[in-house]
Amino acid sequence: MDESTTLVPVDEYLTAGVHIGTKFKNGFTDKYVHRSRADGLKIMDTEKIDEKLKVLISLLSRYEPSEFVIMGRRENVKKPIVFFGKLVGCDVFTGRYLPGKLTNASLEDFKEYKVVMVCDPLTDRNILNEAFEQGVFTVGFCDTNNKTEKLDLVVPINNKGKKSMALALMLLAKHYLVNKGVLKESEFTYTLEDFAQE
């Protein structure tokens, strides 16, 4: 992998554990698995992780913050996505998702989005199902055991790791704000610790 073109040096990806999968894989995520460790854990290809994060950055940069939302119910992603939402200005859901927010126009908190991102297609399936039904573009951060059939864009990553999701969301926030002209790259002074769950 050419480190001059990756979002961060490969060592930073490895230290954050973005590549550590589960002991299970399926046909949906098989193409992102590089190898299996002796203990059975699947190891994802960091080059493919970097590539997909770049695709997501490019995609999101076409939209205003009011046009996309990120959902994450797992404890390991709550702080990172709230911090991400605060920086970029998008909506964030961390608790129980009440059905109808995307489909029932008579609800007070009804909202239409152009992109819905989920941190885990299984735990965040309610919003994913509604977005899929509405034809909204869907993005999922997926571990090796996730199903991806309702996703338009899969970002392979260790979505159960605290640091791995924090790093992904930090990179997403940084490059989104730079691409939107909100700040210069050198002005983004936030660190992994700012995003990581305590």
Structure description:
With 198 residues, the chain is an alpha/beta fold. It has one domain (10-195): Rossmann fold (3-Layer(aba) Sandwich). It contains 6 helices and 7 strands; from the N terminus they run H-E-E-H-E-H-E-E-H-E-E-H-H. The chain has helices at 10-16, 46-60, 75-88, 125-134, 162-179, 192-195; strands at 33-36, 42-44, 68-71, 91-93, 115-118, 137-142, 153-156. The strands form 2 sheets. A 5-stranded parallel sheet has the order 4-3-5-6-7. A two-stranded antiparallel ribbon has the order 1-2. Helix 4 links the parallel strand 5 (115-118) and strand 6 (137-142). Helix 3 runs parallel beside helix 5 (162-179). The chain is globular, with a radius of gyration of 16 Å.
What's the CATH topology name?
Rossmann fold
Please give the alpha-carbon distance between the first and last residues.
32 Å
Give the count of helical stretches.
Answer: 6
CATH H-tier superfamily: Glucose-6-phosphate isomerase like protein, domain 1
Strand content: 5-15%
CATH class identity = Alpha Beta
The main sheet orders its strands as 4-3-5-6-7
The CATH architecture designation is 3-Layer(aba) Sandwich
Count of structural domains: 1
Helix coverage percent of residues?
A: 25-40%
Helix-strand string: HEEHEHEEHEEHH
State the low-pLDDT regions, or none. none
**Major sheet details:** 5 strands, parallel
Which structural class matches the secondary elements? alpha/beta
Count of β-strands: 7
